[in-house]
Structures are given as structure tokens and as C-alpha cells.
Hints:
Elements: H1 2-15, H2 44-48, E1 70-81, E2 89-100, E3 104-110, E4 115-124, E5 130-136, E6 138-142, E7 147-156, E8 161-171, E9 173-174, E10 179-186, E11 192-199, E12 220-228, E13 232-235, E14 244-245, E15 252-256, E16 270-273, E17 276-280, E18 283-287, H3 296-313, E19 324-329, E20 336-337, E21 342-346, H4 359-374, E22 382-384, H5 391-408, H6 418-430, H7 445-450, H8 454-471, H9 473-487, E23 490-492, H10 494-508, H11 519-527, E24 533-539, E25 546-553, E26 568-570, E27 572-574, E28 588-590, E29 594-598, E30 607-609, E31 618-621, H12 623-635, H13 642-657, H14 664-670, H15 679-696, H16 702-713, H17 731-746, H18 750-766, H19 772-782, H20 788-800, H21 804-814, H22 820-829, H23 842-855, H24 857-867, H25 870-880, H26 882-894, H27 899-912, H28 918-933, H29 938-952
Parallel strand pairs: 1-12, 9-10, 18-19, 19-21, 22-23, 24-31
Antiparallel strand pairs: 1-2, 2-8, 3-7, 4-5, 4-8, 6-7, 10-11, 11-16, 12-15, 13-16, 14-15, 17-18, 20-21, 24-25, 25-29, 26-28, 27-30
Helix pairs in contact: 1-22, 3-4, 3-5, 4-5, 5-8, 6-8, 8-9, 9-10, 13-14, 13-15, 15-17, 16-29, 17-19, 18-19, 19-21, 20-21, 21-23, 22-23, 22-24, 23-24, 23-26, 25-26, 26-28
Amino acid sequence: MVARTVLITALLCLLASPTTFATRPAWQWLSEPSDFTLSFERELSDLAGSLPVPNRRQAVDESYRLPNNTSPIHYHLALRTAIHENSRQFSGTVKVLFEVLEPTTTVTLHNRRLTVQRAFLHEEAVGGGAGAQIEQVAHSTDPDTEHLTLAVSQLLPAGSRYYLRVEFEGALQNNNNMGFFASSYLDNNGNRRYLASSKFEPTHARSAFPCYDEPLLKATFELELTHYKEYNAVANMPLAGTPTPDPDNADYVTSRFEVTPLMSTYLLAFAVTDFTIRTADRQTVYARPNVFEETAYPLEAGNRILDALSDYMDISYYDYMPKMTQIAIPDRGTGAMENWGLVAYGEPVLLFNPAINTYRNRKSVTTIIAHEYAHQWFGNLVSPHWWEYIWLNEGFATLYEYYAAQLAYPEGEYWELFTVEVIHSAFGADASETVRPMNWNAATPSEIAALFDTVAYDKSGSVLNMFRAVLGDPVWRYGLKTYMTARQLDGATADHLYGGLQEALVSLAPTLLPATVTVRQLMDSWTSEPGFPVLTVYRTYGERQEAILSQERFLSSKRLPSGHVYYVPYDFTGGHAPDFEPTPAGYGWLAAKADKIATGVPNDQWIIFNRQQNGYYRVNYDAHNWELLIEALHNDPAQIHHRNRAQLVNDAYNLARAEWLDFAVPLRLMSYLRRETQYAPWTAAGSALTYLYNKLRGTAHYAHFQVYANHLLLDIYPTLAIDSVAAQETLLQLYLKQFITTWACRVGHGDCLAKTKQALAAAYQARTPVHPDIATAVYCNGLVDASDEIFVWVYEQFKSSRNQAHRTVLIDALACSRQPAQLESFLTTALGSGAEFDALLATERTRIVSAVYGASREGVDAVLDFLMVPSRVTEFVQRLGQSALNSAVSNIASRTNNQPELDRLNALLVSLGSQIPESVATSARSTVQNNFNWFNTLEGLVVVEFLEQMATTPQEL
């Protein structure tokens, strides 16, 4: 005990250097939740909200749009930066060749917080370029619409062309991944190095230079960057010759780039860095010098994926762009941006080190590269006419991030993850009464930014995949090429896509769709209306072997009457002759609220609709068919396709949550998992298991849940070597092993806890890191009650790691400790300052706190104790921000299930007093009361009764 106290005290002393405070916003995109941080679902009542249900196309304030009396043709942009000195000021000159569309005395562009010094109107010179100056023009910027209006003294006639030259200054933004922004990293000597890069989507180009910042207003771009001579510049296009010395300062050079194809302003991209470069064929990867070895895989993957997409689309990327560069930006979160020819990533989703990064990191790198490369066609070659159609970018990119990864790496089985990671995710967000449809207009920058949501990504990807399956791959690809060819280097609306697919049907499969029905009618029923349907299958069990199909919009919290009819493509198979291979000819269409169809399935055999869950809808059945399905799963799960097994688990649970089904149905159905060996059904069950764990932990009923969970794991757990990695294990097998290990250890499986503890102890003794493909499970579970020596050893690995993805794994692992002193010391690091903590990112500081309260009840108590010290709360808010404190309180409340825990929460709320808003305290108490009240709801009573009976009579399952 003395040794333990000394070690923790030493660690605390190490962390207790004088603290300085700064708050930076954390930004994250496409982040993958850890298996070890328990997520809490929002209560159904919270989802309804008070907003009105969206109309088909809402009105917006059109004053934010440019007046459309002039249009850009070409930009010559020159920027100067001294980022190597950490100077945040930059200056620039932009010359815009524009055409006058309507007679006008004003020219209007966008400007966000740039200081415009002077503006001039020039003639267009014979042979191109800016000619003689006509006049210096007056200018003003409206801070609301961000319109830069330039007044000329003469009427500019329609059809004429001029150059507008604007001189301006601006300031680099600070690590916020918007506009022209600054980042930094530590080199191997601990020196901080600075860099500048851009991210303009959707409306941030205007913060780097005055421009026509709307996606349809495409132009060509000619760029030059003046920068420190020891740095290099990179942009969409290759360098036009070698950098030339700057005549004004011998320490600077100017890098000039070739002219781009026609493209939207949001796709212009550039960076000024001291990065190293890895090259293969026509692709390069830029990254900071001390992670050069981690760029080999993304370069290989980039070449394979771009080639696969070029073949699939039958349109070569290199027909339009001469090169492709990927760049890893430090401290950029987990986002990425598809700039044409220069794709930018946060380091965790591009860099990959096989010695320390997990199989999940490899998957993330592969699929996000595929996502961004898909944009080279969907978004770059053809851009949205307006942000209303952003799903034409993001929906396709979400679909092909899995599909193209599968094409490039067939052995990776990436496509197998699409159902559980995309379709099931989309269902969750799209079941709200206030969700928007895919087509949704917007005007202000904040409205436009809000369109980049689950609807744009997951729902749109799911709907597009449904029609890919229904139309068949030959028709689909023919239609996409037709669409791309017609709209290349231009903008597109949803109707343009529909037209391309319609043309493909006419050419290849004119009888595939019902007579007089068009692609536009079918797809518009999904893209212009919010939500998705539940298809109810009610079998008549008569001699004719028929079923009544009906559709109703699925909402997670209520049922509302709706006159809308989705065109629902359905297919099915039965237990008498199972056939789970979808074909275009095998689909029927439910084009009404209800219909009766013949099934040919004997009354004593199960029936399943939506083979392999290609359709974007849930399916409910009559009670008897549910019984037949449960019986079939218990007898032989393999007779039903694994994606449909995942579908059944996910549908049954969510239908029960929405009170379409008795909760005993999903509980009985999931009990078949004892015989399940595939990842998809298990991870589909993860939401239900997490929900039950969150409700029951800390209550008198938790022991019954442990019996249930251990029963499910009984057969699968012994087949998995949770503390070692076999060479032949596939990606999905590794996913499955981590899932099973997580749940076995979470519910107290003795062998799981012992083996992970032994594996971590052995690694510590050998001073060798755990194999990355089992590191997440071994580190987390092994640290549950590890010695202080082992805890400090893992912490030192975190402190010395330069790989952001690896550091995230170790943060989550350290948070798994259940030793109060260890957790207290770890939480202290989130507030640390000085040289010892220079490498700690703002996002890592907040993740330490959320990982600790998310890992266990002991972690919740540690955060509670930490925040009970008033001086720490002050530091907490100064370092992490008020929102982090509010979030911590809310999450503590979500994890409060009994009276002693509530007493501790109330003590914290009293201690915090006015340091949190009264609304946060009120909401926290309400959350706990809802947790308590759940046991008196029908759902709670059914769950408790079922688990109690199961614990005492398991043979009845």
C-alpha cells in the first residue's frame, strides 16, 4: 500500500506544475465510438422536441444569396504568409475575371472578416489577363450577409467581361478547421512548429479571399503562395516550375501552381508547411517529418482506391486532374476534406503505423480515404447546384466509402460493415418527428453548415444503396456515368441524377419498373419527405398463402397519421426455400398505404422481408411470424442470412422501444445469440445490451441482467483467444473478438478479467506493448485493478506517443482503471500545463474526462470527487470550457441509478452552485427521476419480469 501511494503521489507531483488556462473548441467528425465508453440513448420524449414538422421545401432568406448579375470565370489569387514565425496575419491580392449577366453598376462577392484595402476595375487585356485600370471602386461589406459590394461609376453592359482586383488582409484562424487556419506540432526535440492550411467547405473560402462563394459559381483558379524558403507549399494542382525568390525578402519564395479545372470555390485548397513527402505514381502524401513512416499505407491505399473508383465509374480521375495529394494536418480532429487534388485529413484518419495502430484504425483510414476519393466524382467533378442537394455529395461518398474500400481490398470485408454502421445509424436519427428530408433548402452560413448531418451522410447513403440494389449494378453504373458525363464541371440537382438513372433504365431494363412509374417518382418519395417507413407484414395464414403489407412512418416516440406514401421496394424469402440473394427482378413495390400479396410461403414456415436489409425501412410482423422467426433462430441461425439476423435484432429492439412490440420479443429473440458467430448480429444487439445495462446497473435487478448476458456469451466466448492474435483472423473476426471481450469483462466474466489482466502484466514484465489488434481490450480490462506501476507504464506510453489514434486508444484504456487515486491523477492531466503537457491536444483533454465517466461507475465517482473541489472546478472551466462542465454533470446524471448515487449527485450540484446554469441542474435531476421512474413503466416492468424469470428458469428461453 505504501508503494502504491508513493507511485501515485509521484505521478501527481509530475502533473502538478503551475497551470495556465486556455480554451479551444474541440471538433470531431466520423469518430468511431469506443466499445468501452458506454453510450446513453436520449429519452424518447427528448426526441420529439418542439420544432414544426418540415414542409416539402421551406422558404429561406434569399437575401443571403448573391444577386446573380455577374459570374466568375477565373481567379488569380496571391497570398503571403509568415506562418513559420507563428504570425497569424496574411495578406493577399485576388484578380477575378467576371462576366456581366445583367446590366449593373455594382459587383457583389463574399467577404468574411477580411480587411479590404483597395479595389480596382480593369479591362480584360487582349490575349487574357488584367488590362488597363478603369477605376478604383468604392466598397462596403454587410456583416450579416457577408456581401462585399463594389460600386462602379459606369453601367456595365450584359455580356461584357472585366477584371476586379482586390487587395486585402486577414488573420489565420486558430485550429478550428475553418477557412485559412493555423496548426502546429512538436518536433522530435520538443520544439513547436507551425503550419497553415485551408478548409473552405461549405462557406469559408470567403474568409481567405473575396470570392463568389456559392457552389454553382465555378471558375478556374491560378494560385501563388509566398512563404518562408525552408517551407513548401502544396495546392490542388502541381507546381508550375520551381519556387522563385521573393524580390522583397531573401528569406521568402513564391510557389506558383498550374491552373485548375472549373471548380467551386469551396474546393480550392492549399497548405504551407515544413512537411516531408512520400510519392508513388501520381500520388503523394504530406505529413510532419516525425511521422513519415506512417504514410506508407495511406499512399498505397490511395492508389488502389482511386484506381478502383476510376474503373467502377468508367471515368478516370486523371482525365481531369494530373495528380492527387493527401495531407495529414495535426490537431485537426478526425475530419477530412475532399478538395480536388489535395485531400486534407486529421492525422488519426490518415496516418497508420502497423506496430501500434489497431485494425479499427486501419479500417477507418481505408474507408475515409475511400469516402474522400469518392467525392472526386461526387462533389468535385459534379457539384451540388445549391447546398439543398448536399446529399448528392455526402450520400454517394458514404455509400462508396464502404463499397470502394471493398473493391480495393476484397479481403477486408468492409462492405459487411455498411448495414450496421450506416443503415442502423441512419435509423436512429431519422426516427425523430422533427428530422429534415434529404432535399432541404438553406441560406445563412449556419443553416448551410447544419445540413452536414446524419441525413446528408448515413440516410442518403442508405437510400442510394437501396436504389443501387433495386435497379441492379449495370443499370446503376450506366446511370451514374450518364449523370456524370452530362453534368461534368457543372452543378446538379436531384432531378439530374434521376434523369441519368431513367436513361439507363430505358437503355438497359425498360420493363424493370412498374409501367408509367419514373425514377423521379420513386426516389422523390424518399428524398423530399422526412423519415422512413415501417413495413408491417400481416400474414393471413389461409389457403392462399397471402400477406397484407402496410406502411407507416416510423417514429421512435409516437405514432402520427400521415398521408405520405413511400414507394417501398420489397422482396422476401421463406423458411421452406430460403434464398437471400436480392435481384432487381425479385422486387415488388408497395405504392399505397396497404396491399395484399401472394407469398407462396407455407403457413408453418417463417417469412422475412427485405433480404440482406438493402431496403431503408424497418419490418414488423404479426405475432405468429415473430414466433416462427425466434424458433428458427434458436434451432439453426445459419438458415437466415447474417445481415437479416442483424436486421431482426435491430428491428425488434427498436420496435419494442417505440411500443410496436412487447419488449419480451427482442429479449427472447436475442437469446439465440448464444449460437451466433457473426459480428453483424452481435453488434446490432449492442444497442439493446447497452440500454439494459445503463438502466439496470446499480439496481437490485442488475444480477439478473448479468445472468442473461453471460448466457448469451456462454458458447461464443470460449472459442475466442481474447489475449492473443492469430495470423488468419479477418477484420470481422477481430471486431467480433473485441465486442465479446468487452461484454464478457463488463458483466464480470472471471476468465475474461483474469486473462486480460495476465496479458497486460506479461506485456509490462517484458516492457513490450500489447499487440495493437487486442490492445483496446487488454489495456482497458487489464487496467481495471492494475498496480500503480502498470498504470504509470501505460501512461508513459501515452505521453511519449506521437500518433494521435494510438494516444486516443491509450486515453480510453487509462480511463478504465477503477482505482480512485489512479483516476484522480489521470483527470489532473486534463488540466495540466507547462512543457510536460505541450503535446496534449485540446480534444484529448476533454476526452480524458468523458472517457473516465464513460468507462465505469467508479469513473463517474472519480469525476464527482474531482469536481467537488471548488478550486479544481475553476481550473476545469478555464481549461476545458463551460460546456465541458455542463456535459460532465449531465453525463453523471445519466449514469445515476440509485439513491446513494443520487445523494452524491445532489451534493455535487449544491457544491457547484452558480458555476453551472440552473437549467443544467434541473435537467440533471429530471434525468435521474426518469431513470427511477423507468421501473414503473410497461417497458421496465416487462424487462425486469423477463430477466427475473430467465435467471431462475433459463431453460425456458
